[in-house]
Write the C-alpha cells for this entry.
Amino acid sequence: MSRFRWVIWKELLHVRRDLRTLYLALGMPIILLVIFGYALTFDLRTVPVGVVDQDQTAASRSLVWALQNAGYFEMREIHAPNLQDLVRARYMAILVIPHHFSRDLTRGTPANVQLILDGMDDNTGRLVLGTLRQIIEAWGARHVRLLTRTTKTLSEPSIQVWFNPEMRSQPFIVSGLIAIIMMVISALLTTLTISKEWETQTLTQLLLTPLRPWEIVLGKMVPYMILALVDLGNILWIGHWLFDVPIRGNLITLFIVAWIFVVAGLGIGLLMSTIAQNQRLAMQMTWLVTILPAFLLSGFVFPIENMPWILQALSALVPARYFLVMLRGILFKGATWSDFPMEFLFLTLLSTLLIFASIRIFIRRTVRHA
C-alpha cells in the first residue's frame, strides 16, 4: 500500500504540473453539458413564416394573430409567395390566405388556405407543418362556430413542400456531414501533423533551412487542402448515388465556397497545434473547438433560431454555420452567389482572420523556440 500511495502521489503531481490538461479535463464536461443542454432541442421557437393575406379582413387578421400568439412563429407579411424567399431561407413556410376567405367562412362554404413549406430540413419541416395545421384547424373550429353557430370547420389546408417533397431525412443529414468531415480533415489532421513536428523537434530542423516560417506553414497546409476538396467530390458523388442528395446548383461555386471553408479549418488546426505543441492535448483542443461547434452550433441538425441568444452569438464564430447555409442552398435549391451575400462575406472574413492570426502566432512561437 505504501508503494501504491507513492504512485498515486506521483500522478497527482504530474496532473498539477500539466495545468492545460487539468483545465481541459475539468472544463470540458461543463462546456459539453451547457452546449448539449441548450442546443439539443426539438422545440419550435420564433420560426419565420411569411404571410400573403389576399383577403385583408378581420377573419384573416384573426387567423394570423392566432398563429403569432401561439409563441412558435414569427409572422411576417409579404405581398406574394416568392420562391427566392425560401431559397434564401428567409422563411420556413409561407401561408397564403386567398380572396373571399372571410366570405366563404360566413356562408359556410369550404374556406381553404395554402401552406408552402421548405422541406429541406425534414425534422423541423414536419414540426412546423404539424403545428401550423393544428393551430389553423383549432382556430377554424372556434371561429366558424362564432360566425355560423355550427360545428363546420375549415377545409384541409392545401400543402406544397418544396426542395424535398418526400421530406426524407438522409439528404439533409448527409449534406450536413460534409461540413463535419471537411472540418475533421482540414483541422484535426493539420493539428496532429504540426504538433508531431513540435514533439519530435523536426520543426527546429526545418527552421534551420532557408525556408521562411510562412512558407513552411503553407507548404504543410496545401496537401490537406487538396485532400479536403477531393473528399468533397467523393462525398458528393456517394451522397448523390446512395442517398439521393440533390445537386441542383453550380459545382464550381460550391468548390470555391468549400475552399474558403477549408482555409478556416486549416487556420484552426494550426492555431491549436501551435498553442498545445503536444499531440494529445492539441487533438483534444481541436475536437472541442471544431467538431462540437460544427455539429451543434452550425444548424447541422438543430435550427440556430431555437437556441438561446448566447449560443446564437457563439455560432457567429463557427465557420460551418455559414458554409452549411450556402452548401444546402446550392445543393437543394440551386442557389447562386447573390442568394447568400452575407454568409459568403462572413465566411471569407472569418477564414482570413483565422489563417492570418494562426500564422502570426506560429511565427512568434517558432522564432522564440529557435
Summary: The chain has two domains: 47-162, 169-369.
